[in-house]
Amino acid sequence: MAEALDLSLYAKPEGVGTLGVDLAVEGITCGACIARIEGAVRHLPGVTEARLNFTNRRLHVAWAEGALAPAQILRVLEAQGYQGHPFMPLRAEQEEAAEARRLTRCLAVAGFAGMNIMLLSVSVWSGNVTDITPETRDFFHWASALIALPAAAYAGRPFFASAWRALRAGAVNMDVPISLGVILALGMSLVETANHATHAYFDSAIMLLFFLLIGRTLDHAMRRRTRAVAGNLAALRADSAHRFDGDEVVSVPVAVLRADDRLLVRPGERVPADGVVLGGGSEIDDSLITGETARRRVAAGATVYAGSMNYSGTLTLKVTAVGGNALIDEIERLLEKAASAKSRAMRLADRAARVYAPVVHVTAALTCAGWLIAGASAHDAIITAIAVLIITCPCALALAIPAVQVVASGALFRAGVILNAGDAIERLAEIDTVVFDKTGTLTLPEPRVVNAAAIDAALLQKAARLALSSRHPLAVALAREAAQRTPYDGAVEEAGQGVHGVIDGVEARLGSAEFCGLADNAAPANGDSSICFAHGAQSATIAIAQRLRPDAVEAVNMLRARGLDLRILSGDRPEAVAPIARALGIAVWAAALKPADKIAAIEDLKAQGRRVLMVGDGLNDAPSLAAAYVSLSPISAADVTQAQADAVFLGERLQPVCDTVAIAGHARALMMQNLWLAALYNMVAVPVAIAGLVTPLIAALAMSGSSVLVTLNALRAAKGRSRGRR
Amino acid sequence: MNILVYLVPMALGLGLAGLFAFLWALKSGQYNDVEGAALRVLSDDDIEK
Prior knowledge:
The complex is a heterodimer of chains A (about 725) and B (about 50). Chain A folds into 5 domains: about 1-85, Alpha-Beta Plaits (2-Layer Sandwich), CATH 3.30.70.100; about 95-225 and about 350-405 and about 665-725, no CATH class; about 240-335, Calcium-transporting ATPase, cytoplasmic transduction domain A (Distorted Sandwich), CATH 2.70.150; about 415-445 and about 550-650, 3-Layer(aba) Sandwich (Rossmann fold), CATH 3.40.50.1000; about 450-545, 3-Layer(aba) Sandwich (Calcium-transporting ATPase, cytoplasmic domain N). Chain A has 24 helices and 27 strands. In chain A, helix 3 runs antiparallel to helix 4 (about 135-155), helix 3 (about 90-130) runs antiparallel to helix 7 (about 200-235) and helix 7 runs parallel beside helix 12 (about 395-415). The longest helix of chain B is centred in the first third of the chain and has 25 residues, at about 5-25. Chain B is built from 2 helices and no strands. Chain B has one domain. The interface of A and B includes residues 30, 53, 56, 112 and 147 of A.
């Protein structure tokens, strides 16, 4: 890279005279990388701190102001074989980190209080059946109260705050019965302790908070992990742009571009921002935006969109829109409409809560009334009703779903799938129809050589190695076939024509047919692009086209075997879609669709009562991803599209799509099992509580027993993947 | 049983010490990179020079 990348935007002051920058680092594979990266960066002059976070693959570097240009850090990383990408922590990520710390603190306090109160409670329980004196028991109860009240006031805040918000909005959520149960249990225990009673429920209240906080912390940890991965990906994808500053061209991060900036876009680069061509002419590949694989000729005055690939010539652009505005108007409008019209599936836990809270409250009230009618004292009736509230508090229910989600998202992560939405697993399990986009989804995002079998292997290798010296997209596609990754010495690229060099003492040329002197070599008849290669007397025409993902047929068959209805909706020409649909055996397909047509097709399917999984990557797919019941997109997708997708899958294979469906199905089954386990527990425990037989010991055993059972069951979600593979 | 008057507060005090130790560790960022910590222990870069 000749020009230095200007990183001053990302450097933040840290203390006096010190600047710091966060980099997302690509290429970290093992523990040895830590020492190598930190060691190399620390040797730079002026660096005061270099710390790599191995968990989220981020490097923090601090240096004395003015002692070095931050771009040097990137160069040092590059020399070690890593790619560093400046990274701007997202606001949402920082807020979630603070929230996670708060939850962990609450969890620690509840855990500490729970253990100590349990210590005292066990003494009381064993004393009650032996020879504890009432004075000692009172002392233990007061000591428990002393720990429980401040601990509950601190650790219960997440629940109290959420319950209060719900009540003020006139709604009831899961936190209302929780808060009520905890507060009533503590209040009642306090009154009982003052009256020298045998039973106090301090331990139940705190244990309840402890278990619930575990569930909540797990839920949060999962969302944070996916958020951190998404943040890194955003950084890896933030490309640089060549901007004219006066007559000089400097390389700057896309984030600093402003409207009216003038940019230089060389062949083989993606257009960094929406703009109007000022000068130069080229062919532009819009497939990431529209799905259309045929290239478009552009000249001065033409409009180009961010994400398009520049093929043949150098362009000068004037930026018209950047960042959040960099969308085709129509897509933005459709996206808004689709997202607002989408009736998000109600989360399983919320559905359970809607039934749960009223039932619990009515049961407690009926218990109180029943005992009063049966002639019990008001004191006994109220205590029994509170015992019902405590025993029904949904700690197993609160763990049932987050625990499965965490384990399942771990399994998905190992399968190469990153979740954007926490409840995506539940929705993925319910699909019956899969709609694929073609370009970049069923096919590989970059074109490949398609007629390799028809060309002499040694000749192809020479052509591929020569192609390493060119940045033309067709040459880049050909270079992927090269087994030896070192370019030939002395190979020269003639801009817009081709590469020539000397191989084994014989002149070799790679480029257009004229450039190679092969006027008679016909281009492929089916409209595929081609590149010619001549080496002495030998020559070949290499066809380059979109190719199916290597395991597409296998993956599609696997999905069909699961009983899913498969379809293709593409923005590309019918003659490009038909062979793909035929190869995959997908009977229902539509081509030349505009984004609005795609949404209409998906709305149609929804109207038939289908639950649609949309898999797509183009900017034109973003609205339909938002409209579908649940959506997936490959990591090569456009930014906006990835942001809309519920999950993103990595790599060249389509297998992660099958894995996702399999893991989600398994996880959903486990969630339902867990909900039934929790319900079963209540069916046994509630009658006992209504009968007035629940002692603190029974409450403690029942609560921890059911929570542990549900958690153990959730751990089975990790097996979903191996089952899906088979 | 008077001994309990000393022992229970002492037990609580020890528990609290543990709690504060954990909160301090959390605050000083020791849980920010759990995987890295497990690997750093294997590197020998501290015994050079």
